[in-house]
Amino acid sequence: MHIKSVLRFLALIQLLVGVCMLVPFAMAFYYGEDLAIMAFGITEAAIALFSSVILIATRKETISIKARDSYLLVTLVWVVATAFGALPLYLTHTFETYPSCYFEIMSGFTTTGATALSSIEDKLKSILFWRGMTNWLGGMGIVVLFVALIPFMGLKGTSLVNAESVGPTKDKLTPKIQHTAFALWAIYGVFSVLQVLLLWIKIPLYDAVTVMFGTMGAAGFAPKNSSIGSYESAYVDVIVTIFMIIAGSNFSLYFKAMRGHIKDALRDKELHLYLFIVSSFSIMIALDVLDIYGSFSTALRYAAFHVASIITTTGFATCDYNFWPQFSKTLLVLLFFVGGCAGSAGGGIKVVRVGAMISLARNAIKKRLHPNAVIPLKLGDSNVEQSVMLSLCGFVGAYILSGLIGTVIFSLSGYDFETCFTASFLLLGNIGIGMGKVSPSGNFSIFSDAILSAGSFLMLIGRLELFTVFALFTKDFWKK
To answer: How does residue 169 score in pLDDT terms, banded at 50, 70 and 90?
Structure first.
């Protein structure tokens, strides 16, 4: 283990977080929010002190980050960035307790969108902007941003990107990982600006930017108490739905399309399955809620919005689907176990893994019928080695087990099973909204600090795809 190198990079990345925080800090001056000015000022000073001490202490360290070091570094980055990011909320009394602040910012950075705020619109604008900005930073990844912006340090960031990036596949789009990271952030930025411009037609610029943060980050923090439903606009609903679907797709496909390989991008099997799930579930739910909304177009608008919101793990809402028929609610819960595409801003199990499990089940049936047949395992059009498929199965098993353990922990609160079960899996899958008391009309303020702390851990392991964090708790990781 190269502990000093890990700490050195940790300090540098925290400085980057501090630079990003200068934006809401400036907004606090613009809006004349004295309490926020003090809070951001103290936080910036704390980040500067923390980073300076480490950088001075490790100034003679030869930079060396290996694959195993990257697991520790990436986990520490998210834990420490959240610790500093929560300070402005605590110092402005947005929450009374620090664990609630930590939960809120962990929800932001992990792009979960679950909130412990009972009221949003009465909070300081600069604080809400920072809260939303964490969504956007976490969407493509803090470490990926660092790798994209700091190529001059000679860092070979492949292991870092792989440790943080979501999904079982991390396509290297260019020969150098720094260029790949920059390309991903550039595409992310272009879509972000486009969505802001389209939303600005109907809603104020501040709202357009903060809604974009939650959409492109597949995160779900909104500046309104009733989420996107507050705007009561079909136009806003449609724009947000489209960009949620964009954010939930594999960003490497956009890169291929921009390089002229549009047909290759459109032939992607995971994309086909993703769009099929979105369209089929939207139609089924629209038909089920038709009596509620009167017309199919209106029913489809609400259905497609919430299907996109949950499968992409965004967590926005335009109504409380808790009052929809049981069939529609069941379909939405099923989407908890799908998630976005690999290489997207979305969380969850990932569409590609769901496709792999379907392929594995199909092969198992064929083997029953033809025991002596040699049947290759396929993921899309590609053959997959058995070790890769076993790894995918291991992830799905660990994911479900983690969610069930989380359900048991949440049950200590005394709330009903529907609330505890969906609360656990919505945090693990970085989805943001569930059923029962954590439906769109509810929030996590009902839980104790201890349970919120457990929820913060669920969000962390979900965002870093379990094994990056779980590896730190094994004896093998710490062996020389």
So the answer is: very low
How far is residue 265 from each of residues 89, 252, 271, measured CA to CA in Å?
42, 8, 9
Query: Measured between alpha carbons, how far is 367 from 406 in angstroms, rounded to an integer?
Result: 36
- Beta bridge mates, 137: none
Amino acid at 200: W
Q: Report the distance separating Cα 274 and Cα 33, nearest Å.
A: 44
The 3-class SS string of the chain reads: CCHHHHHHHHHHHHHHHHHHHHHHHHHHHHCCCHHHHHHHHHHHHHHHHHHHHHHHHCCCCCCCCCHHHHHHHHHHHHHHHHHHHCHHHHHCCCCCCHHHHHHHHHHHHCCCCCCCCCCCCCCCHHHHHHHHHHHHHHHHCHHHHHHHHCHHHCCCCHHHHHHHCCCCCCCCCCCCHHHHHHHHHHHHHHHHHHHHHHHHCCCCHHHHHHHHHHHHCCCCCCCCCCHHHHHCCHHHHHHHHHHHHHHCCCHHHHHHHHCCCHHHHHCCHHHHHHHHHHHHHHHHHHHHCHHHHCCHHHHHHHHHHHHHHHHCCCCCCCCCHHHCCHHHHHHHHHHCCCCCCCCCCCCCCCHHHHHHHHHHHHHHHHHHHCCCCCCCCEECCEECCHHHHHHHHHHHHHHHHHHHHHHHHHHCCCCCHHHHHHHHHHHHCCCCCCCHHHCCCCCHHHCCHHHHHHHHHHHHHHHCCCHHHHHHHCHHHHCC
C-alpha 137/C-alpha 147 separation (Å) is 13
pTM for the full predicted model: 0.90
Q: What are residue 22's DSSP bridge partners? A: none
Please state, in angstroms and rounded to a whole number, the distance separating the CA atoms of residues 368 and 291: 45
Q: What is the pLDDT of residues 16-26, one digit of tens each?
A: 899 999 999 99
Residues 100-115: tens digit of each pLDDT: 999 999 999 999 989 9
Residue 166's nearest CA partner among 474, 376, 460 is 460
Q: How far apart are CA 448 and CA 93, in angstroms?
A: 17
CA separation for the pair 78, 313 (Å, rounded) = 19
Cα(469)–Cα(480) distance, integer angstroms: 19
CB atoms within 10 A of CB 204: 11
Count of all residues that appear for the chain in the document:
480
Q: Are the C-beta atoms of residues 389 and 356 closer than 8 Å to each other?
A: yes
Residue 236 tokens read as 């806003």
